[in-house]
Specification:
Layout: E1 6-13, H1 17-26, H2 28-31, E2 38-44, E3 51-57, E4 63-64, E5 67-74, E6 78-82, E7 85-86, E8 90-91, E9 96-105, E10 108-117, H3 120-128, H4 131-152
Helix pairs in contact: 1-4
Length: 153
């Protein structure tokens, strides 16, 4: 659907959806930013209207705040969040709506990250910022952690 200005990626992760979801929601600071970036601040209130804060930091120390709210939370299946609001439904300049899905496939999980933008220009800017490389790297980092936990379970 081109009218939603969408970028997306998928990964097949060799871990069950419950494990991938658990790592996504409880170990976010370990995988959310593409290394050598870090995620020093994480606050997730996993309910509609709950805070979705994943603050990143560049290697040079530049803070990259990232705060929004969850719109939908279906444990082990789907997370939807946006930066259009902060907690308490306070509007802010919107950039993205993120839809994360965790679907069983081939004994593991089909992980999908879909990012919708308010305009074609915003989508193009996000793509030029390195969407595919950056989001691909963090999906690989998430997969590594979930697969390691599955191997040790």
């Amino acid at each position: 659907m081109t009218d939603v200005h969408e970028l997306s990626l998928t990964r097949l992760i060799a871990a069950p959806p419950e494990m991938v979801y658990r790592v996504w929601t409880t170990r976010t600071g370990e995988w959310f930013a593409p290394k050598p970036y870090t995620t020093p601040g994480v606050e997730l209130d996993l309910r509609p209207g709950g805070i979705a804060r994943m603050d990143m930091q560049a290697p040079d120390g530049t803070a990259l705040p990232n705060q929004g709210v969850f719109l939908e939370v279906v444990p082990n299946e789907r997370l939807v969040y946006t930066d259009a609001f902060t907690s308490g439904w306070k509007p802010q300049d919107a950039f993205i709506l993120v839809i994360i899905t965790f679907a069983p496939e081939a004994g593991g999980t089909r992980y999908a990250a879909t990012v919708r933008h308010w305009s074609a220009e915003a989508m193009k800017r996000h793509e030029e910022m390195g969407f595919h490389q950056g989001w691909g790297t963090v999906a690989d980092q998430l997969a590594g952690l979930a697969e390691a936990e599955t191997a040790h379970a």
